[in-house]
Write a structure and sequence with these properties.
Layout (H helix, E strand, L loop, with lengths): L8 E6 L7 H12 L5 E8 L14 E5 L8 H11 L3 E5 L2 H8 L8 E5 L10 H11 L4 E4 L2 H11 L6 E3 L6 H8 L13 E5 L8 H9 L6 E5 L4 H11 L8 E5 L5 H4 L4 E4 L8 H8 L4 E4 L3 H6 L6 E4 L4 H12 L5 H12 L1 H17 L1
Parallel strand pairs: 1-2, 1-4, 2-3, 4-5, 5-6, 6-7, 8-9, 8-11, 9-10, 11-12, 12-13
Helix pairs in contact: 7-12, 13-14
Amino acid sequence: MMNTIKAPIRLLVLMPNLYAGGTEKVITTLLNHLSPVLWEVHLAYLTTDKPPFFTLSPAIQQHILPQRRVRYTAWQLIALLRQLRPQLLLSVLDFTWYIALLSPFLPKETKLVTRISHLPPTPLSWGKALLHRLLYRRFQHIIVQSEWMKTFFLQQYALDTSNISVWYNPLDYSFIQQQSQLPITLPIPKDRPVFVTVGRLASVKGHDRILKALALLPCDFVYWIIGRFTPQEYDRLWQQIAHTPIANKVVFVGEQANPYAFLRHATLYLQGSHAEGYPNALLEAQACGKPSVAYAIGGGTNEAVLNGFNGLLVEDNNIAAYTHGIQQALTMPFDATSIQTFVKNKHDINRCLPQFTKEAMNNLQH
């Protein structure tokens, strides 16, 4: 049955930009590993003044839309789709709703697929719930990141279970192993634990509540915060700790192309997020053999962290419990090799890619 699809399959991916972010990393990892024999890959994204954070394979054909907002791209998108006439269109982030609205004007032979990275806030009003249901039904297939997300979509939007699937975030495990061995410019403490968090300094990432928990920790430590930030975001967090005993223990490292070299030296990975679709940085820490302490916020976090095996989950927004979780984790005999094997078996791109290809073929058959 699958042999009736003639290669290469023309795939167009719509993504707002190539900045450093979880969705951007997932999509670029996928596209860079698609076989040019099987796939003709096109990527369209918005005009920007910033250079791309992620590197793309030369085989990927890039299309820069002459707009800075998704909402203004209608005519360019319709023209591009009619020119390329892709067999498969994958939209992510802000392009998802836009493509659903534009679907009546798109080529009929193009199958529409979206990947959902975050759940909508709940509870939704009946009007918004109805709108979401109608728009999601414009897609032939919906990709989610966890079983928890799949259950949510099936219950909230009464979707056909065959039209939604879990595709775990892929990691380039071999690349992470290679990059983690490179040197870093920071001094590496030998006499105290090193805690690391990777993620932009947005409030949803919960750096503030990690700092509150660390302020209660009785032992000495170093805490590296890796990720981009605006001056306002930096000031907000610095003011929180400026006149406290932990001020000289916290290092704002900034955005790093190679966070894995820092993760290699971590004692624990700390996640403070209020919400996550599936935490890429936490998975990358696991690929470096590091256990984590995270708030039990549901979604992919609760599937990625197995209590006592590769980290600890603590009650959401319980600062004292988080502090206790760090203390407890520091005394536990986590096995780095087992943690790495777990994440490799579940998330390595070489295991995730066949599933994506199989489901893409199935969508083209229907």
